[in-house]
Specification:
By secondary structure, chain A is of the alpha/beta class. Chain A has 18 helices and 16 strands. In chain A, helix 9 packs across helix 11, helix 9 crosses helix 17 and helix 17 runs antiparallel to helix 18. The chains are: A alpha/beta, B mainly alpha.
C-alpha cells in the first residue's frame, strides 16, 4: 500500500513483526479457548447420542474391548475415556471432582471408595442394582464397596495376594509348598523354606533371594496392602489387631500397636534385617529373572509370568499366616459420579461392565477375579490351578482393607512406618509414632481427601 | 580539526536527550524499541503474574483455611491455626531441619568443587572441552533418570557402590536404608548431578577476568596461590554469590530425591520440606496446612538468600 512506503524500512519490518506477534498471540489464545471448550463433561448431541466421560487409571478397568463392546450394544451411548498413570490417579480424581465438569463415571481404587463417598464424589447405587446381584457378591467385596450402609460400586473385579514360587529352585532345595488353603504354611514355615532355598555367595551377597522385593510401588518394603497383613494376621479373628482400626474409624490406638501387632511387625522386620531373605531396595523382575525363590503377588501376575516366558517351572501357594489366615481383597472398580446428568446411561454402563458374562470374560483376558462369588466354585478357570488358590483365598480369607474415609492417610502412615521398620527402626516406638500421627488425622471430619 | 556538521550535533544532542529534530527521530526509535519490548514481555509477564504471583497469593490465602480437594463444602477459615500447628508437628520441624542440613551439605561441597573443576578445565589443554561436557551431562539429564540410577548404585549387596567396597575388602554400607547414611548419600548424588552447573557459572566468571591482572601480578612476583587468593577469588565474588544463592535455593527445593529414592525415610531422615508439603497436601489430605508449610518454605528461602547475599556482598 502507498502510505507504507513513506515509512522507513526498519519501522515497516517492526510493524510487521509486532502485527505478526499480536496475531500469533490471538491465534494461541483462540486455540486454547477451543481446546478448553472441547474437554470435559457429558453431552447430548442432536441425534440423541449421549457421550459419557469416564476417568480411569491407565491399564485399569474398563478395558478398551469392554468400552467397544458396550458401545456396540448401546449405539446411543458413547464413552469418552480419559486416563492417567496410577501414580497421579487419586490427585487427578480430586481435581476433576471439584471442577465444573466432573466425569460421569469413575474408575476407583477400592479402598478409596469411602473417601470418595464421604466427599460426595460418587453416588450410591443401591436403587439401581438388583438385590440378587448384590447378594451374589462375595462378603468381602460387599464390605469393600459399602460406606455407611450404602453400596457405591458393583465391582466388578477383585484380587488377592498369594506366594508365587520358582519350582525349579525349590526342587533343588528340597522344598515342597502346600497346594491347598487347608495345609497353608504359617509364616515361620514359609520363612524356613525361603532360607533353605536362597543362595548366598562367598562374600555374603545374594545370588538368589528367598523372597523377591515387592513389585508394588518402587519396590521398597512397607506397602500396607502387604505389610499390614503381618500385623492383622497376628491377632485372632474379632480382635483389635485383626480389625486394625476401630469400628467407627476414629482410632488405631490399641489396634496397630497391640502386642500382637508389634510381634507381627517384628517378624516383618526380621525378614529384612535378621534373616535377610529379602532386600530393602527394589530389584526389577527379580522373580521373573530367576533371582528369587518366592514372590508376593496378585492373580494378575499369572499373565505377566506367562508373557515373560520364564525359563523355570513355577506355581502358587496360599498366603502364609500367623494366628488367623487373611488376605486383603479389592482392586480398581467402577462408580458413578455424584453430579452426572445422565444417570440412566451411566447405570447401563455399570450394569454392562459388571454382568456375570463380562466378569467371566475378564478372568480369561486379564487375570482379574470376579466379585460374584458363585463363579469361584463353578467357573472352569477359577477351579483349576493356580487360579483356584486365589479364588479360595478370596472366598475364605478375604477381608477389606480398613474401610474408612481416611484410608489414604491410613495407608500413607502405615506404609511409612512399616518401611522404616523393615529398614531397622525400633518396632514398638515406630508403631506408637504412627498411631499418634494417625489418630490426629482420623479425628478430622470425613470428606477430607 | 574538522567542523562538526549540524546533523552530527543534532545526533549528539539526541543521544543526550536534548531537543532537536534528529534527536526526536532517535527518541521515536527508542519508543519503538520500548513498544517491542513491552509487546514481547507482556505475555510472559501475564503468565508470571498468574502462575507465580497470583498462585503465591492464593497459597497464602489457602494457608488460612482448612479444606478438602474433593469438596469445597468442607472449607473452613482457621486463621493462623495451620501456622501454629507447625510448631507442634515434629515431622514438619524435622523436615525443616533435614532440608537446611541438606542445603548446607550441598552448598559446602558443591561450591568449592565447582570452582576447582572450573579452574582445572579453564586451562587450555587437549580434552578440556570434552571433560567440561562430561561434567555437565548430569545437569541436563532427567532428575528421575539420575535418581533411579543412583538408587541402583546404592542398592545393598548388588549395587555398584557396595560391589566396589567388597572389591576393596571394606564393609558393606546400607546407604539409603539407614538414617545416618541416607542424607549424606543424597548429598553425594546431588553433588554429582549439579556440580557441572556450578562449574559452568565459575567458568564463565573466570573467562570474564582480564588476563592482564594475573600477568601483572606474575611480573611482580606473585605465585599461583597468591594470584588465586588475591586476584581471581575477589574478582569472582559476584559469580560466587550467584552460585551459592542458586545452589542453596535448588537444595531447599529438593523433592525428587525423596520422592523416588527414599520416600522421606528412613525415620524421616530425608523428609525434605517440599516432599513433606506434597505428602501433607495429596496423601494426608491437608492442603491448607501444606499451603502454610509452603509459605514458611518461601520465607526460609528469602531469609537464607538475603543472609547469603549480604554476607558475601561484604567481600566485594
Amino acid at each position: 500500500m502507498k502510505f507504507r512506503t513513506s515509512l522507513p524500512a526498519t519501522r515497516r519490518r517492526r510493524i510487521k513483526f509486532l502485527s505478526g506477534a499480536f496475531v500469533s498471540m490471538l491465534a494461541i489464545g483462540g486455540l486454547a479457548a477451543c481446546g478448553s471448550s472441547g474437554g470435559g463433561n457429558s453431552a447430548q448431541s442432536s441425534n440423541g447420542k449421549v457421550t459419557l466421560t469416564l476417568f480411569q487409571c491407565q491399564e485399569c478397568i474398563p478395558f478398551p474391548w469392554q468400552v467397544s463392546a458396550f458401545e456396540k450394544a448401546y449405539p446411543k451411548i458413547h464413552i469418552n475415556v480419559e486416563s492417567v498413570p496410577f501414580g497421579q490417579f487419586y490427585t487427578k480424581t480430586a481435581v476433576l471432582a471439584a471442577s465444573s465438569s466432573p466425569p460421569d463415571l469413575y474408575t476407583v481404587d477400592q479402598p478409596t471408595i469411602a473417601n470418595l463417598a464421604a466427599g460426595q464424589v460418587i453416588q450410591p447405587l443401591d436403587k439401581y442394582l438388583s438385590q440378587s446381584y448384590v447378594q451374589s457378591m462375595s462378603a468381602a467385596a460387599r464390605a469393600d464397596f459399602t460406606y455407611q450402609g450404602k453400596l457405591y460400586s458393583p465391582g466388578p473385579i477383585d484380587t488377592a495376594l498369594a506366594l508365587y514360587f520358582n519350582q525349579t529352585l525349590l526342587k533343588k532345595a528340597g522344598v515342597t509348598p502346600p497346594d491347598s488353603l487347608a495345609t497353608a504354611w504359617t509364616w515361620p514355615q514359609a520363612v524356613a523354606a525361603m532360607q533353605k532355598c536362597q543362595q548366598v555367595n562367598s562374600t555374603g551377597g545374594h545370588t538368589v533371594w528367598g523372597l523377591a522385593p515387592t513389585t508394588f510401588g518402587n519396590g521398597t518394603p512397607g506397602f500396607d496392602y502387604i505389610s499390614n497383613l503381618f500385623l492383622r494376621s497376628s491377632g485372632p479373628k474379632g480382635s483389635k489387631t485383626f480389625a486394625s482400626i476401630s469400628s467407627d474409624g476414629k482410632s488405631v490406638d490399641g489396634y496397630l500397636n497391640s502386642p500382637q501387632a508389634v510381634a507381627g511387625a517384628t517378624f516383618y522386620q526380621n525378614i529384612f534385617q535378621k534373616w535377610k531373605i529379602s532386600p530393602t531396595t527394589g530389584i526389577p523382575n527379580a522373580f521373573l529373572d530367576g533371582k528369587a525363590c518366592f514372590d508376593m503377588n496378585t492373580s494378575n501376575d499369572i499373565d505377566t509370568i506367562n508373557a515373560a516366558n520364564v525359563k523355570f517351572k513355577w506355581g502358587v501357594t496360599a498366603w502364609p499366616h500367623f494366628a488367623t489366615p487373611i488376605v486383603h481383597n479389592g482392586s480398581t472398580e467402577i462408580a458413578i459420579g455424584a453430579k452426572t446428568e445422565h444417570v440412566a446411561q451411566a447405570v447401563q454402563f455399570v450394569k454392562f461392565i459388571s454382568s456375570p458374562a463380562e466378569q467371566q470374560e475378564m478372568v480369561t483376558k486379564t487375570g482379574y477375579l470376579p466379585v460374584i462369588s458363585s463363579l469361584y466354585q463353578t467357573d472352569h478357570i477359577l477351579t483349576t490351578k493356580p487360579w483356584n488358590i486365589f479364588a479360595s483365598e478370596l472366598d475364605q480369607w478375604g477381608q477389606p482393607r480398613p474401610v474408612t474415609p481416611h484410608y489414604l492417610q491410613y495407608s500413607q502412615v502405615v506404609t511409612n512406618a512399616m518401611r522404616d521398620i523393615a529398614d531397622g527402626s525400633s518396632v514398638s516406638s515406630r508403631l506408637s509414632q504412627a498411631v499418634q500421627q494417625l489418630d490426629q488425622l482420623l479425628a478430622q471430619p470425613a470428606g477430607a481427601l | 580539526m574538522a567542523e562538526a556538521s549540524s546533523a552530527d550535533i543534532g545526533q549528539a544532542a539526541g543521544r543526550r536527550g536534548l531537543p532537536g529534530r534528529p534527536g526526536r527521530l532517535l527518541s521515536g526509535r527508542r519508543r519503538d524499541t520500548a513498544v517491542t519490548a513491552v509487546v514481547c514481555l507482556v505475555p510472559f509477564l501475564v503468565l508470571l503474574a498468574i502462575f507465580q504471583y497470583f498462585a503465591i497469593g492464593l497459597m497464602i490465602r489457602n494457608s488460612l483455611y482448612s479444606y478438602s480437594l474433593l469438596n469445597s463444602n468442607f472449607s473452613k477459615f482457621v486463621g493462623f491455626a495451620n501456622y501454629t500447628e507447625i510448631f507442634h508437628d515434629h515431622l514438619a520441624l524435622q523436615s525443616i531441619g533435614v532440608t537446611l542440613l541438606f542445603a548446607l551439605g550441598v552448598v559446602v561441597t558443591q561450591v568449592p568443587l565447582g570452582l576447582g573443576l572450573a579452574l582445572l578445565l579453564n586451562m587450555r589443554r587437549r580434552g578440556a572441552p570434552l571433560l567440561r561436557s562430561i561434567v555437565f551431562v548430569p545437569v541436563v539429564t532427567s532428575v528421575v533418570v539420575v535418581t533411579t540410577m543412583w538408587t541402583f548404585i546404592y542398592a545393598p549387596s548388588s549395587g555398584l557402590a557396595n560391589s566396589t567396597l567388597h572389591a576393596l575388602h571394606l564393609p558393606e554400607l546400607k546407604f539409603l536404608t539407614t538414617p545416618h547414611q541416607a542424607l549424606p548419600a543424597l548429598v553425594i548424588m546431588t553433588l554429582w548431578e549439579e556440580v557441572g552447573f556450578s562449574m559452568m557459572l565459575f567458568l564463565a566468571g573466570l573467562q570474564s577476568i582480564p588476563t592482564e591482572f594475573e600477568e601483572a601480578a606474575a611480573v611482580d612476583g606473585a605465585g599461583p596461590w597468591s594470584r588465586f587468593w588475591k586476584i581471581v577469588l575477589p574478582l569472582l565474588n559476584r559469580t560466587t554469590v550467584l552460585v551459592v544463592v542458586v545452589s542453596t535455593i535448588f537444595a531447599l527445593q529438593a523433592f525428587t530425591q525423596s520422592y523416588i529414592m527414599t520416600q522421606g525415610g528412613p525415620d524421616g531422615s530425608t523428609n525434605f520440606m517440599v516432599y513433606n508439603i506434597y505428602t501433607d497436601a495429596f496423601n494426608l489430605g491437608n492442603p491448607g496446612y501444606a499451603s502454610a508449610l509452603s509459605v514458611v518454605l518461601l520465607i526460609i528461602i528469602i531469609i537464607v538468600s538475603a543472609i547469603q547475599m549480604r554476607a558475601l556482598r561484604g567481600r566485594r
